[in-house]
Design goal:
Length: 544
């Protein structure tokens, strides 16, 4: 610590055919070397051309670079074999001790030379601490070819810095594009205001007018001429087809919603700093497992409302359906990474631990939640359901289920898609994502948008005497996940330069898991909004 090093020789390598080929591939694919010092990742400071003293940090340095010698057309590969590290430290004025607050590097490619035979004590002529000859540029770079020798060297210099240890991460997390986030939030708020206006109009104009009109019906003749949503009061709470599946999906959605909500609050309070590697992922998994309690409870409550009797079967489905799908996709993707002999593969022990978490904690909790949910008396429907289902009249083309479901997904997706761009960039392009404040606002906007668009479309649907709203309400807001996946595909082809098949499969596999999760989350928000809305409007009408 605080002892500068100059031209330290690490090792000397002579490349064989295989090593030369591997290095060239890594240089072509722009691989980077990552290092960590005192939990700080290594960065290469790059000056921004558009601003004077602004510096952007790139994580890790490139293995090498491609270039041509002057006057030659042939492209050669050069390797970065000399690293100049800059370690910034902050001195504590009281104790005199120093703490590391920055870790930067400048990589160079240098063809090192020495006199005589190579041995342990050889001194380089190209980089010599005694002659005060340091490497400052890549003038005669080191080529990557078979049988070439490469000597790896490094310098370390220590710089005193004003940055305090507590705020050493701030330079890493500085977001250069705050305006875009504000723009995205204003854009989303516009959507929300527009929808809220529509919901308020529906609530006030139609409901109060309709309800006061309905409650003044005296004569029998007028009662015969009821129109709109009141007509279907005898069918609106009839349990849907595949009602047990709906319970499973709603339960899973509640589990997801709980996980994301608690995680956002933790992140907002600053518990999940990126300096704690993998903290976010661990927190997500643990929260997911413990939220099983609510999943079981909500799916059992809904199941009891549908007059279901086999609650254990539904509970089992809730415990296995979504996690098993995700786990299967994840397992296949992990097998592919294993096949590539990558260090990014999740080791077998971790996979086993995940299964233990799922079977040992999540499943029992879902059963406990289910037990309590099923024991409570069922919620009463505000109106009685008729014995014989009523016929649904011919619907206009725009009330076609597929059409209205697809339309419903556009607005929730529109509300989040700018923030989504940053999240995708931080996942796939290795940048830190640390604007949980923005993310929380966007999450709240997403909830409101999903709820409102579902309520609006549900109202139109009931007015045209179509009472099959259970599944439709779930799918209306859930369809935003379809747009999310389309956007992910668009992002893949425009922003990422992925050529290898395995990488492409990985990208789409992970995006499929994310879209599926998003579907469950948004669908459940829409479903509960609609559930509350129908109970509200039918309970305020007097029905003889």
């Amino acid at each position: 610590m605080r002892e500068p090093q100059m031209c330290n020789i690490v090792c000397r390598k002579i490349l064989d055919k295989k090593a030369a080929k591997a290095f060239k591939e890594k240089i072509n694919d722009e691989y980077r070397v990552n290092m960590i010092l005192d939990n700080l990742p290594l960065v290469v400071p790059i000056r921004r051309p558009d601003q004077e003293n602004a510096v952007v940090y790139q994580y890790g340095y490139h293995v090498g670079l491609r270039g041509q010698y002057a006057g030659s057309k042939e492209e050669k590969h050069f390797i970065h074999n000399h690293l100049t590290f800059t370690v910034k430290y902050h001195k504590d004025p009281l104790s005199g001790s120093a703490r590391i607050v920055g870790f930067e590097v400048k990589p160079f490619s240098v063809k090192h030379e020495y006199e005589g035979e190579w041995n342990e004590k050889t001194r380089l002529t190209t980089c010599d601490p005694h002659a005060k000859r340091a490497v400052t540029s890549s003038e005669s770079p080191q080529e990557v070819e078979e049988k070439k020798e490469i000597i790896f060297t490094y310098d370390v210099e220590f710089q005193e810095s004003d940055i305090k240890w507590a705020s050493r991460w701030d330079t890493y997390l500085l977001m250069a594009d705050d305006q875009i986030h504000w723009f995205s939030i204003v854009n989303s708020l516009m959507i929300v205001l527009f929808l809220s206006g529509m919901v308020a109009m529906i609530m006030l104009r139609t409901l109060y007018r309709d309800i006061s009109k309905y409650n003044q019906l005296e004569t029998q003749e007028e009662a015969q001429e009821e129109t709109g949503w009141k007509l279907v009061h005898g069918d609106v709470f009839r349990p849907p087809a595949n009602s047990d599946l709906l319970c499973v999906y709603v339960g899973t959605g509640v589990q997801f919603f709980g996980m994301i909500l608690v995680m956002m609050i933790f992140a907002l309070l600053g518990f999940l700093s990126p300096s704690n590697r993998g903290g976010l992922m661990t927190a997500m998994l643990l929260l997911w497992v413990f939220m099983g309690l609510f999943a079981g409870y909500s799916s059992a409550r809904l199941y009891k409302l549908f007059k279901g009797t086999e609650w254990k079967k539904t509970t089992l489905k809730t415990a296995f359906m979504f996690p098993a799908t995700v786990f299967a996709i994840f397992f296949v993707l992990n097998a592919l990474i294993w096949g590539q002999k990558s260090s990014g593969a999740v080791p077998f022990g971790t996979m086993f631990a995940l299964v233990l978490l799922w079977f040992g904690i999540s499943v029992p909790l879902i059963f406990v939640g289910s037990y309590f949910g099923f024991k409570k008396p069922a919620t009463e429907d505000p109106v009685k359901t008729n014995k014989i289902p009523r016929q649904i009249p011919e619907q206009a083309w725009y009330m076609n289920p597929a059409f209205s479901i697809l339309i419903g997904g556009i607005l929730p997706f529109g509300a989040v898609f700018i923030e989504l761009f940053f999240i995708l960039t931080s996942i796939w392009l290795h940048q830190f994502y640390y604007i949980f404040g923005f993310l929380f606002i966007v999450f709240v906007i997403l909830i409101i948008t999903c709820a409102e668009i579902t309520v609006v479309l549900c109202y139109f649907q009931l007015c045209s005497e179509d009472y099959l709203w259970w599944w439709r309400s779930y799918l209306t807001s859930g369809s935003s996940a379809f747009y999310l996946f389309l956007y992910a595909a668009f992002y893949f082809f425009t922003k990422l330069e992925i050529t290898k098949a395995v990488s492409g499969v990985l990208y789409f596999g992970y995006m499929l898991i994310i879209s599926y999760s998003f579907f469950v989350l948004t669908g459940t928000i829409g479903f509960y909004a609609c559930f509350w809305f129908t109970r509200l409007i039918y309970s305020s009408v007097k029905i003889d």
